[in-house]
Automatic annotation (TrEMBL):
Belongs to the leucine-binding protein family. GO terms for biological process: amino acid transport. PROSITE patterns: PROKAR_LIPOPROTEIN (PS51257). Residues 1-19 form the signal peptide. This is ABC transporter substrate-binding protein. Residues 41-379 form the Leucine-binding protein domain. PANTHER family: LEUCINE-SPECIFIC-BINDING PROTEIN, PERIPLASMIC BINDING PROTEIN OF ABC TRANSPORTER FOR NATURAL AMINO ACIDS. It holds the Pfam family Peripla_BP_6.
Length: 402
């Protein structure tokens, strides 16, 4: 369960073809979301990976959703209706997203919860929105998981990749680094957007510049040439725009070569499950939704992860579990406001929530913006085999120590 999670990448055309339906938000076809609330429980369809390489990636958010449902039902549910999660297994195969989404709709799903990635979660989202059912990814960071691509009924509870990268870039600058080198992994949208935002933000700071960059691939076996160019550049910080397992391989070879400059990265590196692959790693930093180690600056986050461990018998793998809980918080509040699960009315209610406070921080949407663009990033430091929070940044500004 703690194995590395990989992400696939595909074009928007592939998503549309895989969905086998009209354009996002298309008015054609019968709606599966009734105008009124159902007689029984309100079903949230869970179109997530329960097996295959992405299962660990979807595990935390799914369990977070389960905790939120339990809390809401203990308070009487939503407008007197219990919430119920029904699972479908996409088996980490984007092509199955459509099939699973359609099956969950036939089983009464009134809202769809999809995988934490645009490429993997998009097909199930399209299957839902084509039937006027709201679809939410708990933590997709790609800017493509938004209205222009997926239509007005699709949302991401994740923080936009560029927003997290902006916070990391300002953190790096505030640490005194002035010459950055970039290792770009182009295999997924998230890492491409992360590197672009880091570069533009860091380069805009006084006396700061990007002194070079290289492209890395997930299957690269040797980084000797890249390490030599990095060493010769005089850089005082490396931005690693990648994810595991490629990122672990790169880090291990970097440190083994004796290059000990600080490395900053992104929330794909959240969790400590991979640290055994880079013994004695230090001076490594990344952004996350929060710290899952009991030392987050927010008491409610620490309480959440303590409950998670008690409930499931193991610590959360990443902080993404927070967004699963937050997704259900927003869905429940919107249904309460709209007094229906009908997609268009429910979307209008979500858009009207404003800066709604969730366990993952403030979450705000608008009619043309359905991904979170401004949320606190907890910057985590890895040193001596231990991960701990060192600062919180919001909108490119430091807002809290530790």
């Amino acid at each position: 369960m703690r194995r590395t999670v990989l992400l696939l990448t595909a074009g928007i055309l592939g998503l549309t073809v895989a969905a086998g339906c009209g354009a996002p938000g298309d008015d054609s076809g019968a709606s599966s979301a009734e105008a009124e609330l159902p007689d029984g429980p309100i079903v949230i369809g869970m179109a997530v990976a329960r097996s295959g390489f992405a299962a660990a990636y979807d595990l935390g958010p799914s369990r977070g959703a389960e905790l939120a449902v339990a809390d809401i039902n203990a308070r009487g549910g939503v407008l007197g209706h219990r919430l119920e999660l029904k699972y479908g297994d996409t088996k980490s195969d984007r092509a199955l997203g459509t099939t699973v989404g359609i099956d969950l709709l036939s089983r009464g799903a009134k809202v769809m919860f999809v995988t934490c990635d645009f490429d993997l979660g998009g097909p199930a989202a399209i299957a839902a929105t084509s039937k006027k059912v709201v679809a939410v990814s708990p933590c997709a960071g790609s800017s493509q998981f938004d209205v222009p691509t997926l239509g007005p009924l699709a949302y991401s509870m994740g923080t936009k990749s560029a927003a997290g990268a902006t916070n990391v870039a300002r953190f790096a600058y505030d640490q005194g680094y002035r010459k950055a080198y970039l290792w770009r992994d182009p295999s997924i949208t998230h890492t491409k957007e992360t590197c672009a935002a880091f570069e533009s933000t860091f380069s805009a700071q006084p006396q700061a510049k990007v002194v070079g960059s290289d492209t890395i691939q997930q299957k690269d076996a040797s980084f000797a040439g890249l390490i030599a160019r990095l060493r010769a550049s005089g850089a005082d910080v490396l931005e690693l725009c990648s994810y595991n397992p490629g990122a672990v391989t790169a880090l291990r070879q970097l440190r083994a070569a004796g290059v000990d400059i600080p490395v900053v990265s992104n929330m794909s590196m959240d969790g400590d499950y991979w640290l055994k692959g880079v013994p004695d790693l230090k001076d490594f930093y990344y952004d996350a939704f929060g710290s899952l180690y009991g030392d987050d600056p927010r008491t409610d986050v620490n309480d959440f992860f303590a409950r998670y461990k008690t409930k499931f018998g193991e610590r959360a793998v990443t902080s993404y579990a927070l967004t699963g809980y937050a997704t259900v918080q927003v869905i429940a509040k919107a249904i309460e406001t709209a007094q229906t699960t009908g997609g268009p009315a429910l979307a209008k209610a979500i858009d009207g929530l404003g800066s709604y406070e969730t366990i993952a921080g403030p979450t705000g949407y608008g009619a043309k913006q359905h991904i979170v663009t401004d949320r606190p990033s907890v910057i985590l430091s890895v040193a001596g085999g231990r991960t701990s929070p060192v600062a919180t940044y919001t909108g490119g500004r430091k807002t809290k120590e530790g």
